[in-house]
Amino acid sequence: MSRYFLALATVVLVAAGCTAASERTGTQPGSPTQAASPTTEGQARFVPPTHSEDGSVVMPVTFPDGTTAELVYPPELDLSSLRVQPYSSGYGPGFGRDFLVYDESIGEVIGSYEGAELLREHDNGHGGTVGFWRLPPDGVYLAFQFGSWTVLVYDYTGDAAMSDEDRRLWATNFHGQDAEDGFLVLWADSPLALAGVGEHAGPELEFWSPAGELRGVLLFPGKCTPYHEGEGGFDDIEMVNGLAVSRDDEFADWCVPKASMTVHVYQETGDTFIDDVLDGLQIRNVELAS
What we know:
The chain has about 290 residues and is mainly beta. The protein is about 10% helix and about 40% strand.
């Protein structure tokens, strides 16, 4: 079965929280790593609801921690046509893990992997079970169905693997559901905790081209500090619409302090997508989750 490739936009947390297992590649902070997505071409996917306002498109969004915001942009930017991929991570006593999130049922996700093998099932404490799967060639995962979304919690093999007790903690204390706008919301009970806004591997929303080319917008909620002029003047920083933007041919990032949001944008060399986002995207009505 053919697969799209969606980008993971954050560094993977690790066993005991000490070393990285899967980090972003590239020279820019937040450069994406390719991860296989089970979604096939033409298959139904989540499309964020939008409405029109004074000739602009308004897209309300919800981050995995419950943070909400509104994206406002001209119709030609067409962000709702991009593929949505939420991201977050969590940790417990002596371990930390990040998540792969898909807008599909767990049966579709697992069924897309040739050679998928159920290694173990853990009671979730609510009359159901959570499967621990080997999904070649990607690795081993705990697989959760939360509303219309599937969340895979990455694990290692060998000495860095979680224990059965660690996996049981995920099975019984990790929760999620569809928000009113259809986005995924996650939470955890102690002793598990999810990374919050502004923390390492915290919640974010990613919007990627479903056609496979490098075109994406990544949003990181939380207070941020704009780039500023150093002793030698601005170094690879340009001012655009009052924003201090660090950019090259394929990547740009900036802080929107009034919206408590950091924005990363990717494009193919020679594309104008970065300029289109800089000129057209506004972020408003941000409510950070407590």
